[in-house]
C-alpha cells in the first residue's frame, strides 16, 4: 500500500492484507506490555506516586502528549493512516510537507475514536495482557513506553476503517448513497459487515497467539498472550470500533463529491 498512489490504497484486498500485517504488530506490542504488572498509578489522573507539575492528567497522558508532539514534528500525522490521541497538542512538522494525493474525504481526520481506544485499553485490555496485578514504580517508564506503542498500533488498525469505508463506498455508491440519505445506520452496519472475514481473522489470531504467545524458554508452557484473550480483544473491542469508524465516516460522506 502506497499512500502516494491512491489506487493501491482503495483496493479492499490490499486494505485487508494491511490489516493482517497489523495483527503481528499488535500482538508483539501486547507481548512487550505483558512483561510488566498492571501499574495502575500510570493511568490515574494526578496520582501522588507520579507528580507532574502544572499538568492535569495521568502519567500516560503526559507521556503520550510529549511523544505525539515529537512525532508531529517528524511529520507522523501528515500521513492519512495516523490519528493523534491529542490532536489539539500536536505541532507543525520540522520536515517539508508531503502532499499526499487525496484518498479520503477532507473530514477524515475529524473521525477520531482515540478517546474510546485509550479508555478501553486502560480499563479492559491492560487487565488481560499485564503479567499480574500490582504496582512496580521501577516499571513506570517502560509501562508508559510500551502502552504508547500498543495504543498507536491499535489506533492505526481501528482508524483503517476509514479506508475500508471509502473503498466500500466507491465499490457501491448507489447502495451507500441510499443508506446514508435515509440515515439507515443498521443498514450500513449490515452491508459493511463481512462475517466470513471477521471469523477468518479470529481463527488466525488463535493460531498466531499459540505461536507468538508461548515463551519458548518457559517449560511450563505458560502463555504470555492467551489466544482466548486476543480473540476477546478483537471480537469485543477492535472489530466493533473499526466498524464504528466505518459508519461514522460513511454518514458524512455525501457532504463531499
Ligand atoms: C474491515 C472490514 O470491515 C468489517 C470489519 C472487519 C474488521 O474490523 O476486522 C472485518 C470485516 C468487516 O466486518 C472488511 O470488510 O475487511
TrEMBL record:
One of its GO terms (biological process) is L-phenylalanine biosynthetic process. Its EC number is 5.4.99.5. The keyword tRNA processing does not apply. The keyword Zinc does not apply. GO terms for cellular component: cytoplasm. Coiled coil: none annotated. InterPro entries: Chorismate_II_sf (IPR036263), Chorismate_mutase_AroQ_euk (IPR008238), CM_AroQ_sf_eucaryotic (IPR037039), CM_II_prokaryot (IPR002701). Pathway: Metabolic intermediate biosynthesis; prephenate biosynthesis; prephenate from chorismate: step 1/1. Residues 140-246 form the Chorismate mutase domain. It is an enzyme of class 5 (isomerase). Homodimer. This is Chorismate mutase. It comes from Zygosaccharomyces mellis. The lineage of its organism: Eukaryota, Fungi, Dikarya, Ascomycota, Saccharomycotina. The gene is ARO7.
